[in-house]
């Protein structure tokens, strides 16, 4: 590997990946690790955010080494699960949240009743006008309330 590379981190639902792309778009190297999903109740889906972080860093380090070190990286691009949510404690760096700090995954439906109540109370038009989003447990806002 002689050129500088774009490091792409792809944080997916079932795995995390790191890939190196050359300036001509060819794939220079890749690494992937699976992620455990937790289903504490029907309709609930959670991830361990520390596992996500640790495995993402491991994949990134693996491909950076294959590139010849961090000096060979021209930039970083990140894709992620988008509507999966977790809050982090600013002081400790630990995840806050449900079941020992797990992230609530985009597939999770635990806030369906709350969203239904807001919709029945007539709040959906205002929410959609302000955010462009529908009132649905898929989106992050109701998950953060949890």
What does this structure look like?
This protein folds into 2 domains: 5-110, ATPase, nucleotide binding domain (Nucleotidyltransferase, domain 5), CATH 3.30.420.40; 111-146, no CATH class. Helix content is 32%, strand content 25%. The chain has helices at 49-67, 98-101, 112-120, 124-131, 140-145, and strands at residues 5-11, 15-21, 27-34, 46-47, 73-79, 87-88, 95-96, 103-104. It has a 4-stranded mixed beta sheet, with helices on one face. The chain has a two-stranded antiparallel sheet with strand order 4-8. It is elongated and about 60 Å long. The termini are far apart. 24% of the residues are buried.
Question: How are the elements arranged and paired?
Answer:
Layout: E1 5-11, E2 15-21, E3 27-34, E4 46-47, H1 49-67, E5 73-79, E6 87-88, E7 95-96, H2 98-101, E8 103-104, H3 112-120, H4 124-131, H5 140-145
Parallel strand pairs: 1-5
Antiparallel strand pairs: 1-2, 2-3, 4-8, 6-7
Order of helices and strands: EEEEHEEEHEHHH
CATH topology name of the largest domain, in short, is: Nucleotidyltransferase, domain 5
- Report, as a whole number of angstroms, the end-to-end distance: 47 Å
Low-confidence stretches: none
* Main sheet attributes: strand count, strand direction, barrel closure: 4 strands, mixed
What coarse outline follows from CA principal-axis ratios? elongated
Provide the CATH architecture of the largest domain: 2-Layer Sandwich
SS class: alpha+beta
How much strand? 25-35%
The number of helices is 5
Give the total of domains: 2
CATH class of the largest domain: Alpha Beta
Q: Helix content range of the residues, please?
A: 25-40%
* Overall average pLDDT: 94
Number of strands: 8
CATH superfamily of the largest domain: ATPase, nucleotide binding domain
Radius of gyration, taken over Cα atoms and rounded to an integer in Å: 19 Å
In order across it, which strands form the biggest sheet?
A: 3-2-1-5
């Amino acid at each position: 590997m002689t050129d500088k590379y774009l490091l792409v981190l792809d944080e997916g639902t079932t795995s995390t990946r790191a890939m190196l792309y050359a300036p001509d778009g060819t794939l220079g190297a890749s690494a992937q690790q699976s992620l455990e999903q937790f289903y504490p109740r029907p309709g609930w889906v959670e991830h361990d955010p520390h596992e996500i972080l640790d495995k993402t860093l491991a994949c990134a380090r693996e491909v950076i080494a294959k590139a010849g070190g961090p000096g060979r990286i021209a930039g970083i691009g990140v894709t992620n699960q988008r509507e999966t949510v977790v809050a982090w404690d600013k002081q400790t760096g630990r995840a806050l949240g449900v079941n020992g700090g797990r992230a609530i995954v985009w597939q999770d439906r635990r806030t369906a009743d709350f969203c239904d109540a807001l919709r029945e109370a007539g709040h959906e038009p205002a929410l959609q006008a302000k955010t462009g989003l529908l009132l649905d447990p898929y989106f992050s806002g109701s998950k953060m309330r949890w």
